[in-house]
């Protein structure tokens, strides 16, 4: 047994458990047949259930639950408040071969407050974002963005936590002069554009500055996106955008740091205005979806905020 | 260790097992590294294998097998003769978060004689029906009807146990006057209806009482059924039905309590006569399936038997 | 010139015309460069315009107009009040070869009050029904039913004369208990049937006698009708019918002898009730159309009235 | 025979012709078996061939050719330089019935320099525009725009006279920075836009002013245009446009008054720049075509020149 | 009137006809209001009906029938035994403009024994092949091959005269070793090739020399053929071919000079062997048709016989 | 504890492990809470991790790794160098029922050097081939071929180990005379064939011996292969092949024993030449794929080498 000098004062270790590490926080409990190797570090108030195995190069934050039958391998970094369901399975080698340890192990990161469902499998090198939810039995083969909900094999995003879902742009009647409806997210608005139809076809139009609140310096079209893919996942510092799904449909999640809302764009006479400093994600593209985007600025990589924490910082600075 | 006064006389507990409950039936064996909490109740002649963990609020019937690596959580109710394969995984919280126990736990019910395949995952709040079979690796997200076989992620019904499968209504040649073929299920018959075709199209017709053995007081059409869904799953006390799949195809399982048979309806000139007191299930609807049903009675909710056990009771009373 | 003893007293023949027949009715005018052979028979008050040619075995009724550039060949039978537009063209041999006259000529019949558009071509052996309208430039390769409007090459039915067109069954909102709307045709009504939908699919049902005004002794399904084809075109003496288009769409023309209306059936929760002694035609079947018909009587060929004139007779007798 | 006082001095009338009108211009020839009624007016240097019939309320301009077997009915207005092919057929009543003359006759207008092909049929009330070409055997059911070529039954536009056809935007290789190619029409250019593709799909972008020679104040999308239809047919006084066919394909005819060219747009990374005072027509849309247009100005009806003659005037003023 | 010295001795000219040519053959009749210009040449035993107009540069063979209302323009060459139906219309200028005669006239050729249906329109520059049949109302825009039957606007081939039609390769049962069936055409055989299918798919194979009676030196694939197009129309002097329609279907007409048969190829396990000196035509391609052809020789243009008459010559030489 | 006489001299057994078998090879380590039953046989240098359970009728080769949470059931045969990831799950009864052991257990075979990913489920009776890789979370329902990589539920082949992937035949420009490009696999070459297109469609041709390096004695077509299926998996001793994918696409893996490459065939004018003694596999067929293969020899079963080890032997003999 390891030197127990760093162990918290009221750590509980079941008589049938093997707790070889000295770095175990106060209030943490380790149950029967669990086995913690000497190098592991476990924070306060954790719950390590029966039949769990924890290797050496593993760091576990505070208030983490590890249910029965789970192994945490070298390279795993578990932040605070993470939940790991029973028999959830990790690994640290994408192409494992017996007795071949020449490749460096791949780190897996479980960010603060995320949950891994029962029996889920997480591939090596994955990051599961803050507060994300991995469904039971999901097989995670790609990084899971913060707050995303994933399920299936392979796992796909099926929603976002704490996000109001608006089924689709409501379209009560034809609009001839354009109309603007606010959303619950600061600055984001849904624009109905005029739609003219006659025997020769249909036409929809948008006037810049009048109906679309900026003059574009750039447009782009996104298309042939596999249904499983997610695009966007960033905010802009100063660029305004206006999104129109000219064919098929796509779901857009917009988030001002306080409120989050999901809007389905599914008709060419509806647009979504996204001002700077709003986080936006596009997903659930249909096979035929074609998304037209107007941008107020020329392309500038430095205008993109691609990290959600950085986005939250930028919001604070602004106010 | 718990008070052992209620324990059966010949319970076997491996020296490396922890069996803290006193309610363990005669003939039950508990193997190495298994851990049974004090509140659990286990019936006779069960087999609890290595590395199993059983929480307190768990009830297990008789002759149950729990293979290695399984955890049975609070809220699980396991009936007699259930088989739970190795590393099968349960849970009792749909949106688990570490250290948040404010939501009530969700019960999971495994009915008599069902089997859960190796490595299967069963979501919270699910009922797996009597004698149902959950395939290895299946992720069960919906209730599984009695006797159904499910597999995949998410799990879908792929068959019914002990049910003879008739690939499709045999169609050896055009029929002009109608023909009737019995099935192996009491009273159920397959009816070939006349089909006339010429350059202007095709026409199929049925004469009531002559070709279809009752006069209808009602018809209904079922359509746009998602392929994963199951309809029917009931018997009628006195109503006769006649089913014609006018487009696409659908599989119908009919069951007289003794014999069960699956018939694929896939052409508009074939009908299935289902008399009262026959249990019927429709599933494997193709996307375009359209099922036309004639009923001998007006709609009457009290005529439906929707519980299989109740159906078996009704059969007994009748004889 | 022929013997003129049967000629009407005030027949006008232009000095530059050749009118060799003696059977020309009172009030008929024959204009410049027209040529009527001796065997032709022309009724009263006809107008035979410039450059027309009329062969011997041709019979023309009263008040017929034959515009310029038309030839009427042996075998043509033109009833009263027919209009033949300029350069309309007939023939009497399907596989004409020069100097080969071994096949019998094929008769063409233009029934009372029909019109042949400018430049139309009518193939040999065709009957154009009473009051039918052949559009300009149409190439008629099949019989044209009474009152039908045809156009195109080959000509297809595009409507019926004097028939009010109701675009489709109006569907303002879901209906739970059924609803009945009258039409402008005596006794014919449009029935909205209850439609129930949930996640497992959709179901529409009809109760006989309550929602559908008779008890069926027969049903039939019509499907795979080529879009160009017309079905029905008959009335029943005593059978009631109820039509539901369970898939695709079909246009039904109903006619009580006084009023005619066209109703498009295009949804499974809408039915059309057709009582006895209403003439009905179905056409404009979409490729996927599937028409379900309930009949109050068993099949009886003697119940069908397939001739419109006979239908008009039957109506008179009844009143 | 009519009073011949208004007849030109060297009118030729064949001995077998009937020329009853006195208003026939100098140099006009009227051939055998033709028949001109007294009210008709025929200009100079016309050629009226054998077996032609001309009613009273008909006006014919100068240098018109009417080939054999044609009738010109009351209400026809034939401008200068028109060619009418043999057996071409007109009419002046959409729903002709024998002896029913209660509806007013419908006028048909053949504008200057147009040609009507052999055996073509022109429905009542049609205008055939200046220099248009109606193909042999065409059945014209809609107005024919100036300079359009139509054929078929019903007739559809298949091209424009004197217009160079460029098969499609040539695409020799991927382009990363954009490229511009001139056309034969003044100021019109074809722009290749960068196309980026990766695992998540494809993206094409255009930088305004740099790659597209103006900053847009307006965009519009045109879609679901039936293949038979034509859009555009106008020039702008001051508005610049940039057309991108983001899906399917469309043919664009551009015309600077001197030169005319047809360009097929069929890919999302190719655009067409159309400056002011260029006449543009779009047609031959595929079923799935979706045309995105950027405009340099806000919508202003007074900026549109919709009449080709007015367009020619505007060009003259400018130079 | 023209010099009549070359006129046949028993030519009949109706008193109201204008027959200005002296070259009119014995036994030919010219009827009322017909007009033949001086330069025309007409053979023996022809029948020129009322209201026909024949220009100068026209040559007509023997036993030709020209029904009423037809004009034959300069440039028309009509061979023996041709039938021209009433109001059939020809022209000799594709882009006619009034008073513009700068383009040379285009010749139209009607080969021996062909028939032009009533009201058909034949565009300038067309050749209608020997014994071909142009249906009533057809608008002929392309050459019509010998013996083809065409109809519609534009006219498409719908069959071949005197050709036995075999609906499709008969497929009574799976074949494992291959089978050969003769046709009614000399040397041509239908080969059923082995088809093996299992859960992994289907496989069909052909052994050269054993099952296919030659060793190929070349293969080619024909695909994306518009449905309206005809391919083949030639015979080979020494090359053997073997045709397999691997997708979709195509009709092949084979002809040994004596017998003609049409075979529909519509499955990948059926091939058609065509030996040298058999005339073959492929048409009625479905949109997805893909025709695989094996050839016994390398490509050699001199091996092709593309003229049916030359083909008949080659057959004679051989015997 | 079992008789330890057959145990290797330096076997390590953790104090908390239960190692009841005496047949455990030198250098093998057995970790905490693992349980090995007396009948099991384990080779040298194996690593049996925590919480593993090994039944009696199990044979394990040398250098095998069994990660935590795995059970190896009666009937499992594990060859040398196999890796079994954490929580991977096996079973030996397809239709398990509690307490019913009447059916014989089904053997599962893991061949030399294969790896089973974390959390994978392997159904009873499966063989996983040598060096194959079963992805994390895969549910294996069919045998896995040697060297194949599988993933998903149910598991499908997604690649082959150590195989260079060439995205598709590069097509820089049209080719008129044919072109040949080598691959990294000995003797295998990619052939571009001439493609000719005109208004009537497209044609591609190949000259044997000139463009394709042998004269075929056989051809076959492979089609309607379900996308999940694999074909080929063999080498020929003396037969040459030439593969053309005439529609859709297919991936071909070719392997000369030293080098392995995957080539996607996706156009009818590209072919792949495969000489004798090259191992070839075809998979990833699109739904519409149709593969045409030419073979230099007649069908001869003895020419096929269907076992990879035998293929390797044949290569050695040759050199």
Fold topology:
6 copies of one chain form a homohexamer.
Chain A: E1 12-13, E2 18-19, E3 23-24, E4 29-30, E5 35-36, E6 41-42, E7 47-48, E8 53-54, E9 59-60, E10 65-66, E11 71-72, E12 76-78, E13 83-84, E14 89-90, E15 108-110, E16 115-116, E17 121-122, E18 127-128, E19 133-134, E20 139-140, E21 148-151, E22 156-160, E23 164-166, E24 179-182, E25 189-192, E26 195-198, E27 201-207, E28 218-223, E29 231-236, E30 241-247, E31 250-255, E32 260-265, E33 270-274, E34 279-283, E35 290-295, E36 304-305, H1 308-318
Parallel strand pairs in A: 1-4, 2-5, 3-6, 4-7, 5-8, 6-9, 7-10, 8-11, 9-12, 10-13, 12-15, 13-16, 14-17, 15-18, 16-19, 17-20, 19-21, 23-32
Antiparallel strand pairs in A: 21-22, 24-25, 25-33, 26-27, 28-35, 29-34, 29-36, 30-33, 30-35, 31-32, 31-34
